Amino acid sequence: MKKLGVLLLLVSAVMLLGGVALAQGDPSYYFVTYYSDANRSNAPDATLRIINDGDHSTAEVEGVPIGGNLSASIYVFDDSQELQECCNCLITADGILSESVNKELTANSLTGTVNHVGVIKVIGSVVADPTDNAPWPGLHGWMTHMQTFSPSTTDCITTETPLSDANLVTAEQTALQDSCSFAITLGSGHGICSCTPEDHDF
After folding, report:
1. Percent helix, strand and coil across the chain, each rounded to 5?
2. Domain-by-domain residue ranges, the chain?
3. Is 27-186 CATH 3.40.50.1820?
4. How far apart are the first and last CA of the chain?
5. Are 93 and 57 in contact (CB under 8 A)?
6. Among 60, 93, 97, 160, which residue carries the largest CB count within 10 Å?
């Protein structure tokens, strides 16, 4: 009977420690997802939503977090692995950013092409510059995906999934920043995505 009591005590301690570890939060700052059936007349628009959990805040005044601003550096690729658009969107503590794939993330492609399928990458940063960001945790995101059964049908299924956590190595971060810099410098106004005003839908 004593052995059973000791065993239950150990199990409880492990669960308690596990709970404490989980309570420390998610330290991720680099996320990836995809878009599909974008800019097609038979498919609805998809949406990228990102929130700032407020963990970076340094104080609060009358319930409003202070000093918790983060930026979402967004990089949009086509299905040929070419960067087509990039931008940086500010998200204040407890704020939400809603981005239309058709209207804001793929409407101003670097090459002028209409993109239907591709990859979206997001870096959470304390610096508001997609060409020179400083990664920082505190952002969390979700993406809706449009799944059509064929290009000729209007039947479509909408799914929503969290952005996938990814490992940001130095080479990848440098490549994203450099590609974005080239797009902004050489695109003559193209290659730059736009940001919805915070806490507003597009």
Report:
1. 20, 35, 45
2. 27-186
3. no
4. 63
5. yes
6. 97
Give pTM, 2 decimals.
0.83
Q: DSSP string covering 59-89, please?
A: EEETTEEES--EEEEEEEEETTS-EEEEEEE
pLDDT digits (tens, 9 = 90+) for 100-155: 999 999 999 999 999 999 999 999 999 999 999 999 999 999 999 987 766 565 67
Q: Is 85 left (phi over 0), alpha (psi -120 to 50) or beta?
A: beta
135: how many CB neighbours lie within 10 A of its CB?
Answer: 15
- For residues 124 and 168, is the Cβ–Cβ distance under 8 A? no
| Cα gap 122→195, rounded to integer Å | 13
Which one, of 101, 179, 165, lies nearest residue 133 by Cα?
Answer: 179
The alpha carbon of 127 is separated from its chain's Cα centroid by a whole number of angstroms, namely 16
* Residue 142 CB-density burial (10 A; 0-12 exposed, 13-18 middle, 19+ buried): middle
What's the pLDDT tens digit per position in 67-101? 689 999 999 999 999 999 999 999 999 999 999 99
